[in-house]
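Let's practice the habit of predicting before peeking. Look at the sequence and jot down your guess about where helices and strands might fall. Then scroll down.
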Amino acid sequence: MRIEWQDLDVNGDWLSGYSKIHEGIISGTFPAHRRRFAVWTCSELNVPVSPESTARCAGLANRLLGIISAFLYAILTERALIIEWPGDEASHLANFLYSPYLRWNATRSTWSHLDAISLDTRVGSGRSGWLGVRRELRTFHWLNDHKASVVKLTLLEGYFDDLLQNPNLAAACLYGLNLKTSDEVLGRLGRILFHAHNSLDDDIMARSVGSTFRLGVQIRIGMVRQTGRAWNQRS
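Done guessing? Here is the structure:
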């Protein structure tokens, strides 16, 4: 077992352990070999893509699923999660949501000078981009692979199952975390990452004055993917 995983178990509270790991990496108090980052990003593509691929960053819900997937990756590989939200500063996710447990909105200067690799689900022919990333997340080894200081993760859906199914990470998933299913990942890690600023409720109420609320229903026919799982849905 990887000895550092013991750091995640502080009197049975893995979150306290990870919060200390995260802060040590962000603040620079950890030694250089342990200053490693998992950066969720959806920056502009600098590689060619096929016509079937998309360079967009998906909708809000899919972005959040991808960020939670990146958070699980960060915990299992003992990296500090950074969220590099696309768009201008006024629309940054940190203006609306925050985590009381970790600073996921550290600036680029914290990590941009370090060596990096990229796992981008948008790159590839047709669906081979996200299929290739899924295979990678299911099989990579924490000791032999992903040695770069920074792993950039452009995950635009839920990839929880792929990480949970990786036999090289099985001990970490259970040790302290006790995460076994995608629902547990989404429910527990999502609540850790995203808390609304008090001003958000006031802003929503202010914008809603005189407005008409509408309820929409989205129906998808064909292959549907949700939290990293796929099934056929027939009308």
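How did you do? The CA atoms of residues 84 and 91 lie 12 Å apart.
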